[in-house]
Amino acid sequence: MKLFVLRRGRLLKVSFIVVTFILTVAFFLPKPKSQEEQQKEKIVKKYEPKQRPVYKEGITGNFDLPLYNTVPEGPGEGGKPHAAKGEDQNEVASVMMEYGINMVVSDQVALDRSIPDVRHEECRFWHYPEDLPSTSVVIVFHNEGWSTLLRTIHSVLNRSPPQFLKEITLVDDYSNKEHLKGELEDYIRQFKGKVRLLRNKKREGLIRSRTFGAQESKGEVVLFLDAHCEVNTNWLPPLLAPIYMNNTVMTVPVIDGIDKETLEYRPVYRGDTHFRGIFEWGMLYKEIEIPEVEMKERKYFSEPYKSPTHAGGLFAINREYFLKIGAYDPGLLVWGGENFELSFKIWQCGGSIVWVPCSRVGHIYRGFMPYTFGKLGQNRKGPIVTLNYKRVVEVWMDEYKEYFYTRVPMARQYDAGDLSEQIALRKQLQCKDFKWYMKNVAYDVLYKFPLLPKNLHWGEVRSMLTSQCLDPMSSQPPSVVSMSHCHSSRSNKIFRLNEEGQLGVGERCIDGDTHHIKLVFCRLGTVDGPWQYNDNTKMFYHRLHRKCLHLTQERSQLHLQECNQVNNGQKWIFRELKV
Ligand SMILES: *[C@@H]1O[C@H](CO)[C@@H](O)[C@H](O)[C@H]1NC(C)=O
Ligand SMILES: [Mn+2]
User: Does the residue 79 lie in any domain?
Assistant: First the structure.
């Protein structure tokens, strides 16, 4: 533009100078490199020692901000609980049903609200490399509320160094809510391409949608978040540094809680201990304090530490590596078990998982899943989550899969689908066996969840007096066991009596006295359980109390009583179930 203001003669002269300049620069520019040279350079770069994060006591980290003590005024600021003004209780009840989150409250809290910096004090003094990998944050959603989704996006944009945030990739898993259509597209336009929106053409479920998001992303690292999170102060560099050092590492932030009713932000974990992810034999996800040896391997309390598994929702991983190990098994349906699949695969096939205490992300725990699975997986035998577990167990756990079948006997009959591709992948990646994993990585599982003794009997337990079945009534102790209709399709009435005399139901055990029969925490060590079952007399004998399981007809009440062979209230039939 400016050139046209100049007179003609000057214009020519200027053009001449510009052309000469360009030619000169072009002459001195390095010639384009041959492919071979490029390849060599890449290899050299790969093996160059990477700069590690450095701890400098008292010196604020390079990506950290100076402390500020003022919290802005406003609803929910500082992560404080908010009570909606003029709240209509009917409306609240209705949004809780629809979203599992109080959206009336959420809509009144700023999308850019402040939250407390809950990190350990050391975290402010870590200095990270300046050339960390670029990152695509992948967020899958299905019928998510407007303000919770947008607050997730805002928090990522506000609290990530822009040079490392390549993009936020949103994957809409076939939502049908109006606000997630044109309105969302209009809204993200302000972010000028930094927030991209992909949409599934049919319902795919969380697992497949995530793989799709990773395939479509452009960053060197993919970082998965739930659609109702708020990332905390300086959350990103600590997650990227371990991957930068070694691109087979998966990193997991520490998750804080955001209350689903008040949006209060509060840590779930106490400050002076670290927890890591494990599992029990029914494949329920569990956490346990990190073993002393892992603690001692590190110089600083705030350093990352190894974990056998992860909860599933939130983690970062090198994108190429994630795709190389097959991303998620595409045969897994919707949700559940994918965290174990990825954990076992990463560890057994040469990678590792670390939890990163200095990276904190708040997550709204909903009381239930406010949507159905739709038509997904309806043509397979068995409940979806258990089918997923069966795939994972069959592909990765070798002889240890027997403990899963002991814990979930019905699963033997389920159809997990074709596993040949997953088994071929395991072979191709030359992965180690599960025994290696148990010995070297998940060695603390057995302290908490010993190998299960074999079942002598399993199934529903029917009374010969009333033809009703034992029902634990709840999955959490202390709960009094009662009676209800048999033939429930739900698995919560399937009991197991093992060789050690433990009577189990789900992950819990049954004990009793002369007043009640109760659900209790299974005792560790598993020696000398209290129960014996006699297949001839059909009676349950409690070895410690020396009494029998007894049902009183009139009050339908259970307790232990003197054994009496002619009393039908003491006769029980164990019946295995078929799908
Ligand atoms: C990366 O981590 C894996 C698993 O812990 C290890 O076997 C490998 O040697 C590491 N690679 C480098 C370059 O440090
Ligand atoms: Mn969630």
Answer: no
Single out the residue in 394, 417, 448 at which a domain terminates: 448
Q: Which of 541, 542, 559 is nearest to 550 (CA)?
A: 559
Q: Do residue 288 and residue 414 come from a single domain? A: no
Residue 475, SS3 per DSSP: coil
345-367 residue pLDDT tens: 999 999 999 999 999 999 999 87
Among candidates 159, 160, 51, which has minimal Cα distance to 113?
A: 159
Does residue 247's CB lie within 6 angstroms of at least one atom of ligand 1?
no
Q: Phi/psi zone of residue 249: left (φ > 0), alpha (ψ -120 to 50 degrees), beta?
A: beta
120/232 Cα distance (integer angstroms): 12
Q: Nearest residue CA, atom 4 of ligand 1? A: 351
Coil, strand or helix: which one is 462?
strand
Which CATH number belongs to the domain containing residue 338 in this structure?
3.90.550.10
CA of 351 to the centre of ligand 1 (A): 7
pLDDT tens, residue by residue, 76-118: 999 999 988 777 788 888 888 899 999 999 999 999 999 999 9
Residue 376 lies in a domain: no
pTM of the shown model? 0.89
Domain count, the chain: 3
- Work out the burial of residue 505: count CB atoms within 10 Å of its CB; fewer than 13 is exposed, 13-18 middle, 19 or more buried: buried
Q: What is the DSSP letter of 334?
A: B
246 alpha carbon – ligand 1 mean position (Å): 6
Of 306, 328, 324, 132, residue with least CA distance to 224? 328
Domain boundary (416, 448, 480) is at 448
CATH value at residue 428: 1.10.8.460
Q: Which domain holds residue 178?
A: 96-364
